[in-house]
Amino acid sequence: MSVVLSTRPFASRTSTATPGSTAPAAGVPDAPPAAAAAPAAHRPGERPIPAVIGADLRVPVRGGGLVPYANLDYAASAPCLEPVYAAVTAALPAYSSVHRGAGYASRLTTARYERARETVRAFAGARPDDAVVFTRNTTDAMNLLARCLPEGTTVVVFDTEHHASLLPWPRAVRLAPPAFPGEAVRMADEALAGIDGPALLVVTAASNVTGELWPVAALAHIAHRHGARIAVDAAQFAPHRPLDITALDLDYAAFSGHKLYAPFGAGALIGRPDWLAQAEPYLRGGGAVRSVAETVEWSDDPEARHEAGTPNVLGAIALAAACEALGATGWTPLIREEERLLARLRAGLAAIDGVHELCLWEPDHPRVGIVSFVVAGRPAREVAEELATGHGIGVRDGRFCAHPFVRHLIAARLPGAAAAGGCGDGSIGAVRASIGIGTTDEHIDRLLAALREIARG
Ligand SMILES: Cc1ncc(COP(=O)(O)O)c(C=O)c1O
């Protein structure tokens, strides 16, 4: 789609508006959070890391009283960045539908929406002719891609995937978890060699269970050697590391705004336009058509074709604002701070008797700020509830929408007593702590102190 109106730089890009000027709603977990977090220290010459909304949320704990919330659940959904909030707020006064109206607000909002598409393209390092389709989230993006596969396509996917990338495919070859990264490449090579016809390799760039980074560049190389394509689930990668579709030679990538500090309901599928332009529209309706008479002429613009109906304009603007804010900060300070906090967390967990971190590969394999673990003999749900109600800490528990992978990591790899904890209902489960912008040393230390207590029993 082309930008229909060129405008001055948006107020949202330069706004100094301070979000949420009301006092914190103490003790009411669903009340609007107030001020932004104090940003982590930056070095001379570096831009400050932007703040997140709601960092001073206070939550009730057992026995009465309120404590500052320690949000260690970023992998599920990250808080809103201050510049994202500002961008959405700035866009609201002229909010209108897009691609439909001649009015000023409609043309301005259309321009903002299409500019958001270009910002997301740049953030992902996509090629100029790649389609950037706004979706609801990664799950939606992968399901859209599944609907666009040429007839007879076989999808090769590892059992380590999140269900969003494991389940949408009509015809899939599932591979067992590889014992080391090189084995992932070897297994993909072997599987792709055995496929006649179109093939797609689907792989995550960063695991939502272990945080481990996958060798996506090597996997892209192998896929292309077999004439196959590769789609990368970047839901957990994009918030933590620079995504470069062109440099990695990926055919498709998908991610979610709500994990990227833009919780306004938009995500993206980015990649080669041909399959998208030829497929049946994802949704049938207005915006996806060129003309409707006795017969329907669908748009051959891959973006319009799959974005029928009024799109989530504010979601797209929010997602683009997050991309801009992270880009403006630069990845060096973000990664340095994350790695410092992650090292503190992992060293602390390793020092607690009875706590076992889940890793697929070597402990020093590169990873993003996500750690899953079990506490021997303690159901994951019980641990998570104790962390929440006793200590004001938010973590995730269960199997993280990656049932085969978590089952493999626990049942196949942990000693019996450790594996026995489970979810508390007899099924296998773990606890996951995940970090991002706004995480502090105090959050990590509070989690570790609480776990020492819980592990002692
Ligand atoms: C690796 C990975 N892929 C896909 C998803 C699905 O994301 P969404 O729920 O935003 O569609 C998640 C969510 O946790 C994830 O961690």
From TrEMBL:
Its EC number is 2.8.1.7. Residues 1-45 are annotated as: Disordered. Residues 14-41 have a biased composition (Low complexity). The keyword Zinc does not apply. InterPro entries: Aminotrans_V_dom, Aminotrans_V_PyrdxlP_BS, PyrdxlP-dep_Trfase, PyrdxlP-dep_Trfase_major, PyrdxlP-dep_Trfase_small. Keywords: Pyridoxal phosphate, Transferase. Pfam families: Aminotran_5. It is an enzyme of class 2 (transferase). Gene3D superfamilies: Aspartate Aminotransferase, domain 1, Type I PLP-dependent aspartate aminotransferase-like (Major domain). Residues 71-447 form the Aminotransferase class V domain. It comes from the Bacteria. Belongs to the class-V pyridoxal-phosphate-dependent aminotransferase family. Csd subfamily. This is Cysteine desulfurase. The lineage of its organism: Bacteria, Bacillati, Actinomycetota, Actinomycetes, Streptosporangiales.
